[in-house]
Design a protein that fits this description.
CATH topology: Rossmann fold
Bound molecules: adenosine-5'-triphosphate
Keywords: ATP-binding, Nucleotide-binding, Transport
Number of strands: 10
Pfam families: ABC_tran
Oligomer: single chain
Distance between the termini: 26 Å
Number of domains: 1
Protein name: Phospholipid/cholesterol/gamma-HCH transport system ATP-binding protein
Organism: Marinobacterium stanieri
Largest sheet: 6 strands, mixed
CATH class: Alpha Beta
GO molecular function, one term: ATP binding
Length: 258
């Protein structure tokens, strides 16, 4: 099957003072895939995500989105391109003073120029798509469960009909049933909407259940990016411990039995 790369990261370098996070990192994201990004704590998974969506300026390298070098574009074109990306941040990053409906409507008002009324109507559609009950729109973020926060954040990430969604640890803090339901939601949305998904995760169940490929960050670069079964066999001490430790084996077994 031929694959179309819609995001190409080449020679990416990120440094914060003396802390070198990425050196010469390459990665492709293919149209329609769910890519899981894993690595030890502090290996730069979130910094990579932020570099691709334009929230972190790398010291060197290229990020090509849909064939265009993001970092070389004038601000207006860059912003247009960035609107084809939706982001679900760790913790949700919802505005606490706005209702759920207003949170999801905001990007539609600010970036798509919709009236408040139209934006709120469309927000309801996105909330339903993310598996939330109709009354959820009236709630404020403080009264939501962890699973609901993730779903509202997903609805907001989907507000502008992005081609690609970036999920930063979407199942962190959810109980196993909530996490499994979220994995299924991501799979359903990818299949129904043709989304491409970049998912930073520590969740072994998500990796085996939802991901087409896994990229492992180690030693400041992508050590390997391949199908889950191939990555699990890769000869590297961190990968061996991660996939073949008790939790890794249990997650693999659960997927085999399902
Ligand atoms: N804005 C920043 N200023 C300075 N250092 C930063 C900044 N953002 C990230 N870092 C550093 O970059 C490194 C990678 O951070 P990052 O959050 O990407 O790691 P991660 O792989 O996502 O970790 P975790 O799995 O623990 O969430 C860390 O050493 C972090 O301290």
């Amino acid at each position: 099957m031929s694959r179309t790369s819609i995001i190409e990261v080449r020679g990416l370098c990120n440094r914060f003072g003396r802390n070198s996070v990425h050196e010469d990192l390459d990665l492709d994201l293919y149209r329609g895939e769910i890519l899981g990004v894993v690595g030890g704590s502090g290996t730069g998974k979130s910094v990579l995500l932020r570099s691709i969506v334009g929230l972190n300026r790398p010291v060197a390298g290229e990020v090509r989105l849909f064939g265009q070098n993001l970092l070389a574009l004038p601000a207006a074109e860059r912003s247009r391109l960035e609107q084809r990306l939706g982001v679900l941040f760790q913790g949700g990053a919802l505005f606490s003073s706005l209702t759920v409906r207003e949170n999801v409507a905001l990007p539609l008002i600010e970036h798509a120029g919709l009236s408040r009324r139209d934006a709120e109507e469309l927000a309801e559609v996105k909330l339903a798509l993310s598996g939330l009950a109709p009354h959820a729109g009236d709630l404020y973020p403080a009264s939501l469960s962890g699973g609901m926060v993730k779903r509202v954040s997903l609805a907001r990430a989907l507000a502008l009909d992005p081609d690609v969604v970036f999920l930063d640890e979407p199942t962190a803090g959810l109980d196993p049933i909530g996490a499994a339901a979220f994995d299924q939601l991501i799979l359903t949305l990818r299949n129904a909407l043709g989304l491409t998904v970049f998912m930073v995760t520590h969740d072994l169940d998500s990796l085996w259940t939802a991901c087409d490929r896994i990229a492992v960050l180690s030693q400041k670069r992508v050590l390997v990016a391949d199908e889950p079964a191939k990555v699990a066999q890769y000869d590297d001490p961190w990968i061996r411990d991660y996939f073949n430790g008790p939790r890794g084996r249990a997650a693999y077994q659960a997927v085999q039995e399902s």
